[in-house]
Amino acid sequence: MKNKNGIIALSPLIVFILLYLVTSIIAQDFYKIPISVAFLISGIYAIMSSSHGNLAERIRTFSRGASTENIMLMIWIFMLAGAFANTAKDIGCVDATVNFMLSVLPDNMVLAGLFISTCFISLSIGTSVGAIVALAPIAIGLAQTTGTNLPMMLAIVVGGAFFGDNLSFISDTTVAATSSQGCNMKDKFKTNSYIVFPVAFIILVLYIILGFDINTPQNIPETEFSKILPYLAVFITALLGVNVMIVLTVGLILTAAIGIINGSYDIFGWFTSMGTGLQSMSELIIITMIAGGLFEIVCKNGGIEYIITKITSHIHSKRGAELVIGMMVAAVNICTANNTVAIITVGGIARKISHKYGVDNRKTASILDTFSCCMQGIIPYGAQILTVSNLAKINPIDIMPYLYYPYALGVFALLCIYFKFPASYYKK
Q1: Could you state, in order of their start, the residue ranges of all structural domains in the chain?
Q2: Which of 226, 295, 290 is nearest to 261 (CA)?
């Protein structure tokens, strides 16, 4: 009976998977059903099938989930990101930045250079979405200029973005992981570095090898450095640890000043460009809100609790406890499509498991952050992949085969648990 109730609680997610993934696979066309429509139908089903309260109360539960602090913050970032990306594009910032990168990077460093840049920016600003917004337009421009596979270029940006999201001191995932386990951010960073840096180095070498066949075009136009300033400002303010919303606002104001000075548009043209950028994010905003409401109902009906109960039923050792914690946060991340929410959801039970089986709290925090970031980096309906695919106007599924960094991070994290690495965290 308990299993039956658990499956019923998770049924809205099952409906979504059947509608979006299974139907698209059968039709051999992932454009057949827009992901927003799949979420809408799943959301309606979630409200109608919920067993808690009357219809009005279920709608209130859905609306509460759709308007949480995290969801609204994401929507603010999406709106600012869309406006900044489009205004920067309209004044030629993307072309200028692409020309600059092509002029300073050797042929075999185009892919590696993009990966390093994204890692650095995401580490500075502490948000994968912010890094993606800043560098996805550049990746798109580089792909068009060099004739490189566009989904692969976008996947490089996604991978680099999660490098910083996983390590940054100001990342929401770092704050959630360390506070839930009661450990120091510096200690968690050190623990994470044993896993993340080897993976990043291997992937960097891979991009250097893959980039050997990429030839930068000849006769590259002279770089207009004034048009690089918005991206440079985003980079510098990020380095200073400024909030991502302020970072994007500074960039947006600079696009207005530069665009008006060089005659790209007047103040009304800037408003129009902003409006176009906001509209480009409309589907993403709708998806985010519907997903938040859907997952709130799943949680209310006991779906998340059911997953956690099932995944923690077979623990026999410290290594088994670590594996269960990793699988638990990954499973909840699949359901919530938000790595911070996943860490917050399972943080308490992860701490209890750690105490019971003697897992170092620094290692637990690292596992929570690493596995959630890894899973968030490969689900096609996560905010990061939706954002980058939305900016490039391609299907999220097209990017998935090229997500080398998240895949490698997940494999290496599992190997670290299996081989008890680093050994210092396994001493009695």
Answers
A1: 70-282
A2: 226
Residue 422, preceding bond cis, omega within 30 degrees? Answer: yes
DSSP state of 382: S
For 294, the 3-state DSSP assignment is helix
Residue that the structure tokens 């009357």 belong to: 54
Residue 126, classed as helix, strand or coil, is coil
Specify whether the CB–CB gap between 362 and 401 falls below 8 A. no
Q: Tokens 């299974």 — which residue?
A: 22
Q: Helices in 240-359 by DSSP H: which ranges?
A: 244-261, 267-280, 282-300, 303-311, 318-336, 339-357
Query: Would you state the structure tokens that stand for residue 158, as one six-digit string?
Result: 């996604």
Sign of torsion over alpha carbons 401, 404, 406, 411: positive
What phi and psi, each to the nearest 5 degrees, are found at residue 222?
A: -65, 140
The two structure tokens encoding residue 79: 């709106």
Q: What is the pLDDT of residues 172-230, one digit of tens each?
A: 788 788 888 888 878 888 899 999 999 999 999 999 999 888 776 666 677 788 888 88
Identify the sign of the CA torsion 140, 142, 146, 152: negative
Longest dimension (CA), the chain: 70
Closest CA to 97 of 253, 251, 245: 251
Burial of 213 (0-12, 13-18, 19+ CB in 10 A): exposed
Q: How far apart are CA 286 and CA 129, in angstroms?
A: 17
Residue 275's CB is within 10 A of a number of other CB atoms, namely 13
Compute how many other C-beta atoms are within 10 angstroms of the C-beta atom of residue 427: 6
Could you tell me how many residues make up the chain?
428
pLDDT tens across 400-418, in order?
999 999 999 999 999 999 9
- Structure-token match 């099932």, residue found: 310
For residues 130 and 122, give the distance between their C-alpha atoms in angstroms, rounded to a whole number: 7
Specify burial of residue 226 (Cβ count, 10 A radius: 0-12, 13-18, 19+): middle
